[in-house]
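Subject: Re: docking follow-up (flavin-adenine dinucleotide)

Dear J.,

Thanks for your patience while I sorted out the input files. As discussed at Tuesday's group meeting, I've set up the holo structure prediction with flavin-adenine dinucleotide included as the bound ligand rather than trying to dock it afterwards. The sequence and the ligand SMILES I used are pasted below, so you can double-check that they match what you have on your end before we go further.
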Amino acid sequence: MLRQVLLSIAGSKATKDLVTKMPVSAGIVARYVPGEETADAVRATRSLVDDGRLATIDYLGEDTLDEDQAEATVSAYLALLEALGADGLSRGAEVSVKLSAIGQALPEIGPKLSLENARRIAKAARAVGTTVTLDMEDHTTTDQTLDTLRELRKDYPETGAVVQAYLRRTEDDCRALAFEGSRVRLCKGAYNEPETVAFADRHEVDKSYVRCLKVLMAGAGYPMVATHDPRMIRIAGALATRSGRSAGSYEYQMLYGIRPDEQKRLAASGERMRVYIPFGTEWYGYLMRRLAERPANLTFFLRSLVSSK
Ligand SMILES: Cc1cc2nc3c(=O)[nH]c(=O)nc-3n(C[C@H](O)[C@H](O)[C@H](O)COP(=O)(O)OP(=O)(O)OC[C@H]3O[C@@H](n4cnc5c(N)ncnc54)[C@H](O)[C@@H]3O)c2cc1C
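The structure tokens for the complex came back this morning:
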């Protein structure tokens, strides 16, 4: 309930104006976002790589209807990839891209423009020896994003997909995506979705997550298990063993700042552990989704808001 309220006020301009006056360094923002600049993302990546973790980096931004903004986002990714290459970090870090940040929602030209922009980023990623994963957004974009993924994979088959266990369709999508060479991130899903398309009950979402894990672990692709949930992590490990998978033929993923001790524990036990690092000025939508997942952080958030004034 609180989750839905938080996700729906996240769309209010007045709330956004109030919240984005907080500096990125304010308590709750800094917990989830290491900074606004490329250098901040590179620094955060370096410290993860130094202790055996991997990274996937997201230049924050979404839902743009402005072609110049989409172009600025592409430039930010190109600069980031160049910096990762120059710092010798591109083997340990890939990038995560939201198609809505690179033009997907622009009237008429959106799908073509976002595919072209995704191609430019995939080309730059390959040039420094790394890959791209296409984040998944709300359900109205799922088909379009999977179409773009299919096109992009013709030239860049290493491009990763994301599926969301809360969507009723996802078990079928997992079957379609569980082929050799296919990198698939399975997450629970972070948007406010109607019951017609998504499971509303947390237990139903968890059951769907396990069904999807079974398909991906038994399939020929490369599963990327994106969750902080201890039960899902245990089940993923058991299913990997049952499917005869060795460490390195799948990976775990968590968000920057969430359960860092568990991230280190998994990495130290020989598992591949990748951390999603968001950076940039457009942290509002990302922060609101994190608060919706963890209403216990609300007090912390309200305190940051008051003390930043
Ligand atoms: C690497 C990665 C990439 C993702 N990409 C996408 C994407 O492309 N599209 C999309 O819709 N969603 C994405 N998500 C978000 C995902 O869908 C969930 O919203 C998010 O991961 C919370 O779900 P959970 O599986 O951790 O389980 P939950 O049941 O939400 O949480 C399990 C436990 O994790 C801890 N926890 C969870 N969230 C928080 C928090 N915010 N603060 C502190 N502790 C917390 C708590 O201990 C909680 O009990 C991604 C998540 C990860 C880890």
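A couple of observations from a first look. Residues 34-282 form a domain with the TIM Barrel fold (CATH 3.20.20.220). DSSP finds 13 helices and eight strands in the chain.

Let me know if you'd like me to rerun anything.

Best regards,
T.
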